[in-house]
Design a protein that fits this description.
By secondary structure, the protein is of the alpha/beta class. 27% of the residues lie in helices and 25% in strands. It has 11 helices and 16 strands. The structure holds zinc ion (ZN) (2 copies).
Amino acid sequence: MTMKAAVVTRPQHVEVQMRPVPQPKEKDAVIKIEMCGICGTDVHLFYTPESFPLPMKMPYVLGHEYVGTIVEKGSRFPTVDHLGNSIGLGDRVVYINLNCGQCYACRTLLAPWLCMGGVFDDPGEEGMGAFAERFYIKGEGLIYRVPDEVPTEVAVLVDPIGIALAAVQRAHRPGTPDRLDGLGLGQTVVVQGAGAIGASAAALAKLSGATQVIVIGAPQGRLDICKRLGADHVINIDDVTDPAERLEAVRALTPHRLGADVVIEAAGIPQAFGEALELARRGGTIVEVGSFTRQGTIEFDPSLLCYKHLNIHGSWTLPPAAFGMVLEVMRAFHERVPFSEMITHRFDLDGVREGLETSRRLEALKAVVVP
Ligand SMILES: [Zn+2]
Ligand SMILES: [Zn+2]
């Protein structure tokens, strides 16, 4: 049995090849990929692998944001998912395998998403990603059954919405609501970046009770989607090009001209972090979630951190607690919040190259591959 896969064979070259369909070992399974998102990480890996902490060895297949249906499983594949829901043939699942199970983070911190063992994203069998018809999943990974009510085009967003969920949860800390520490009801949240993580963060901040969510980003098409997902105001950086003007616009929108209670930096541009230090009010909170790859350095005045008494958190991918919760958030809110509108482009396997290109040019908010 063979299947189609979009294989990266040399730098910036991807071609559809026929590959043998993997056969699951007794504890593992094979899923049919229903849909797989093109992530910013895929774009970085494809065009600028040197910006990435762990470049992939060629040939490899990209794609890690997938929903798949279990089509084959070994005799000892788990019968329940990570939350205890039954799973079996025919069920749609999302899956992540981030942990080596051996390192300090895995064994002592019990924080598998911070694994130091060099397993960043499970390449599956033989460098396989999910821009393919089939994908191999390990029974020991974190497998979650997609609730029946959640459409595939929402579930496929588990990665960006989950990362945004983890970042929004990070903003709740240290979380003394009656001292207005951390994110709480009635606050103003600024989200920098209108990509899938930024748009998701805007939606989740609104669901978390922010009275004002302001998204700073571009292009306008993405900002319009952010508005439909819950942003109250958007500031287009192509129109308002001066950071001082953006600060003024945010101050004008916040009570007493305080600035933002919470800033979530999801643009991934170093200068945006410098701007976040200005946008946050005294005693405010900043979550840096966008700088997933090395994009250079900036200068800033550290006295601002003291003067403003800022809470600054870094946020790396999604802990299991967020991964499980995001499906529940989707189930509860997908009819109220049109998450699937983030998907602006669809491609088949032959279109992976075009999909990566469209994503790199920021034309797509989220492009997906339907094998
Ligand atoms: Zn991703
Ligand atoms: Zn580990």
